[in-house]
Specification:
With about 575 residues, the chain is an alpha+beta fold. The chain has helices at about 30-45, 75-80, 80-85, 130-140, 205-210, 285-295, 300-305, 350-370, 380-385, 390-395, 400-425, 465-470, 490-500, 505-510, 535-540; strands at about 15-25, 50-55, 70, 90, 95-100, 105-110, 125, 145-150, 150-155, 165-170, 170-175, 180-185, 185-195, 225-230, 240-250, 255-265, 270-275, 305-315, 330, 330-335, 485, 515-520, 520-525, 545-550. The longest helix has 26 residues, at about 400-425. The structure holds flavin-adenine dinucleotide (FAD) and iron/sulfur cluster (SF4). Flavin-adenine dinucleotide binds near residues 57, 336 and 337.
C-alpha cells in the first residue's frame, strides 16, 4: 500500500535525480558500518565507489535510542584501532547484576547460574547515539556523503521491477495536501544497490518485505517497546560500570519484559523498561509500567536527588533467528534491525547491526567490482547466518518463544536450561526451534475479558506524565504537513479499536499521540502527530493493522541528546 503526502502528484514538477553506486537508508550503526566498509574496500582496491547515506533525523544520532551496553565486536572489525581513534565508549562494564522483583523486594539471581553468553565482561556502556555521531564523522572523513534531515519516502524501481534507489519526500506540503510557499520537490537518489538500514519496523523495509514476499516461510517478526530516561544521579550513588537487569514486577507473569539500569560516564544512569508487544491486556500502558517500576524500593534510591535529563522510546525486534526474513531483494539488502538481528536475552543488537552492515558492504562491493547492478545478492544471507550473527542468535532462538508460552518465571528457567545446553553442546540446546505463534497485533484480548489497570499520578520528581517527558525528547515536527500517521479506516477504528479493545493506542503510545474524546455522545479518534517520537509501536500493535506509520518531513521527530 502506498500513501502519498500530496493531493495530486501529476501537477508537480519532476524530481531531480542524482546517481550513486550505493544508497544507504538510515544512519544508525548498521547503515554507517555498511557505508564505511564500502569505502574501506574501495580504498584497498584503489577504485572509486560513491556512497550516500540518508537520515531522517535532523542530525546523525538524533533518532537513535538504545540502552546501551555495547559489544565492540562489530566496531573492532570496522576500526581495529577504535580506541586510538577516540570512539566514545567511555565506561567498561565492571559488574553484572540480575534481579527478580516482587512488589516490595528483590531476589538477586547469582551470576553463576546465568548462561555465560549473558555476561557483559568485555562490553562497554555508552550512548549509541553518540557512537553514531562519531561513526558519522569517520564516514564523512572517508568521503561518504551524509544527508541528515532527508527521509527516504519512496522506493524507485527499474523496468524489470528491481529496486533502483529511493526518493526523498517532498518538503513544504500543507495539511491540505497542497504545496505551500516552503515547497521543495523531493530528490531521486538512484543507485546500483540500495541498503535498507532503517532499524526496527522500517517503513521502506515493510514495503519491500511485502512486495518481494521476503518473510514467506519464516516466523513473524516479534517486537518489544523500550522506554528510556537518562538521569544525572548524585555522585554517592553512581557506580560506573554497573549493569543491572530485572524481571518480574510490575509486570505480571503473562507479560514479558524487564528493566535495564546502566551506570556510566560522569554520574549518568541510563534507566529503561522493555515490554514485549505480544501483551494481551489492552488496558496495559508500557509507559505507566515504566513509571511504576522506578518506584520500587530497590530502584528509587538510585534516582533520589537526581534529575531526568532525557526521555524517549523505540521499538526493538525480538523475533531473532527464526524471524530473519530473506535478506536480499533485487537491487539491495536489509541490514541491522530492519532485518531483525537483536539478541533478546543479551538485549543487544548494535553489534549485529554493525556486523550485518559490514557483510552487506562486502557483498555489494564484490557485485559492483564484477560490473553487476540491481540483482539479488544471494551470498549475503549465507554470510549472516553462517557468520558471527548466526553464531550469536542461533543458541538463544528459543528464549523468546519460551517466555511467550510459559510466562516469565517458567519461561526464563526453560530458556536458561536451553542456553546452558547450548553452551556445553554448541548448536544442540533442546534440539529444535520453537515457533513464535501470532504476530503482536493479534495478541490483544477484548477489553471485556481483561481487568482495567490503574496507574498512580506522577509525583514530578521520580515519575512524570507522558507529555512532560516528551518535552525531554526535544521532539519537533513542522505543524503544517499532512499527518504521517495514516488511519486506513476510521469507522473500523471506532468499531473495533475503541468499542472492542477500549482504545489501547491511548496507552501503548509512549508520546500520547492518540486520544479518544467524546463529542456529542460519539467517540472521536484524535492523532497528535507532532508528538510522535518515531518508536513505530502503533504500526506494530494496532489490533487491526489500521494505522500505518510513514515518514514525515525530513528532520522532524525527536532530537535525542546522547540516547
Ligand atoms: C530501549 C532499547 C535498549 C537497547 N539496548 C541495547 C543495548 O544495551 N545494547 C545493544 O547492542 N543494543 C541495544 N538495543 C538495540 C539496538 O539499539 C539496535 O539493535 C540498533 O540500534 C539497531 O541498529 P540499526 O542501525 O539497525 O537501526 P537504528 O539504530 O534504529 O537506526 C536506524 C536509523 O535509520 C533512520 N531511518 C529510519 N527510516 C528512515 C528513512 N526512511 N529515511 C531516512 N532515515 C531513516 C533512523 O532515523 C535511524 O537513525 C536496544 C534497543 C532499545 C530500543
Ligand atoms: S504515534 Fe506511533 S510511532 Fe509515534 S510515538 Fe506513538 S506509538 Fe510511537
Amino acid at each position: 500500500m502506498g500513501f502519498s503526502r500530496v493531493a495530486n502528484t501529476a501537477d508537480l514538477p519532476p524530481r531531480e535525480a542524482m546517481d550513486f553506486d550505493v544508497v544507504v537508508v538510515g544512519a544508525g550503526p548498521a547503515g554507517l558500518a555498511a557505508a564505511i566498509r564500502l569505502k574501506q574496500l574501495a580504498q584497498t582496491a584503489g577504485r572509486e565507489v560513491s556512497v550516500v547515506v540518508l537520515e531522517k533525523g535532523s542530525e546523525v544520532g538524533a533518532h537513535i535510542l538504545s540502552g546501551a551496553v555495547i559489544d565492540p565486536i562489530g566496531l573492532a572489525r570496522l576500526f581495529p584501532d577504535w580506541r586510538e581513534r577516540g570512539a566514545p565508549l567511555p565506561t567498561p562494564v565492571r559488574e553484572d547484576r540480575f534481579y527478580y522483583l516482587g512488589p516490595a523486594g528483590a531476589i538477586r539471581i547469582p551470576n553463576l547460574v546465568m548462561p555465560p553468553l549473558m555476561s557483559n565482561h568485555g562490553n562497554f556502556i555508552a550512548s549509541l547515539g553518540n557512537l553514531c555521531r562519531w561513526l558519522g564523522e569517520q564516514a564523512a572523513a572517508l568521503g561518504i556523503e551524509i544527508f541528515p534531515g532527508f527521509a527516504a519516502a519512496e522506493l524507485l524501481y527499474d523496468e524489470g521491477g528491481a529496486v533502483a534507489g529511493v526518493a526523498t519526500g517532498d518538503m513544504g506540503i500543507g495539511k491540505d495536501g497542497k504545496p505551500t510557499d516552503r515547497f521543495a520537490r523531493g530528490m531521486e537518489l538512484r543507485a546500483k544497490y540500495t541498503i535498507i538500514a532503517e532499524g526496527a519496523r522500517g517503513s521502506l523495509a515493510e514495503t519491500l518485505i511485502a512486495r518481494f514476499d521476503l518473510a514467506a516461510g519464516h516466523q513473524p517478526q516479534k517486537y518489544g517497546i523500550g522506554l528510556k530516561e537518562l538521569w544525572e544521579v548524585l555522585p554517592e550513588v553512581h557506580r560506573p560500570g554497573l549493569v543491572q537487569h530485572t524481571l518480574g514486577w510490575p509486570l505480571d507473569n503473562r507479560t514479558g519484559g524487564g528493566s535495564f539500569l546502566y551506570h556510566y560516564d560522569t554520574n549518568l544512569v541510563s534507566i529503561g523498561f522493555v515490554v514485549h508487544l505480544n501483551y494481551e491486556n489492552p488496558y496495559l500502558s508500557p509507559y505507566g509500567e515504566f513509571q511504576r517500576f522506578k518506584t520500587h524500593p530497590a530502584i528509587r534510591p538510585v534516582l533520589r536527588g537526581g534529575k531526568r535529563i532525557a526521555y524517549g522510546a523505540r521499538a526493538l525486534t525480538e523475533g531473532g533467528w527464526q524471524s530473519i526474513p530473506e535478506l536480499a531483494f533485487p537491487g539491495g539488502v536489509l541490514v541491522g534491525c530492519a532485518a531483525g538481528f537483536m539478541n533478546v536475552p543479551r538485549i543487544k543488537g548494535s553489534h549485529n547491526a554493525m556486523l550485518s552492515g559490514i557483510a552487506a558492504a562486502e557483498a555489494v562491493f564484490a557485485a559492483i567490482a564484477a560490473g553487476r547492478l540491481h540483482d539479488r545478492l544471494a551470498g549475503y544471507r549465507a554470510a549472516v547466518l553462517e557468520g558471527p550473527i548466526g553464531a550469536d542468535l542461533r543458541p538463544v532462538r528459543n528464549a523468546k518463544p519460551f517466555l511467550s508460552r510459559f510466562g516469565t518465571r517458567l519461561g526464563t528457567l526453560m530458556s536458561g536450561v536451553d542456553m546452558w545446553l547450548n553452551t556445553f553442546l554448541p548448536g544442540t540446546g533442546l534440539g529444535y526451534t520453537l515457533k513464535h505463534g501470532k504476530p503482536d497485533y493479534a495478541t490483544l484480548k477484548p477489553a471485556h475479558a481483561c481487568r482495567p489497570i490503574s496507574y498512580a499520578k506522577p509525583d514530578n520528581e521520580l515519575t512524570f506524565d507522558r507529555l512532560t517527558n516528551v518535552s525531554f525528547s526535544a521532539t519537533n515536527h513542522e505543524e503544517n504537513q499532512p499527518s504521517h500517521l495514516k488511519l486506513i479506516d476510521s469507522a473500523l477504528q471506532v468499531r473495533s479499536e475503541h468499542d472492542v479493545y477500549a482504545g489501547p493506542s491511548s496507552r501503548y503510545c509512549p508520546a500520547g499521540v492518540y486520544e479518544w474524546v467524546e463529542e456529542a455522545g460519539e467517540a472521536r479518534f484524535v492523532i497528535n502527530a507532532q508528538n510522535c517520537v518515531h518508536c513505530k509501536t502503533c504500526d506494530i500493535k494496532d489490533p487491526n493493522q489500521n494505522i500505518r506509520w510513514t515518514v514525515p518531513e525530513g528532520g522532524g521527530g525527536p532530537n535525542y541528546p546522547g540516547m
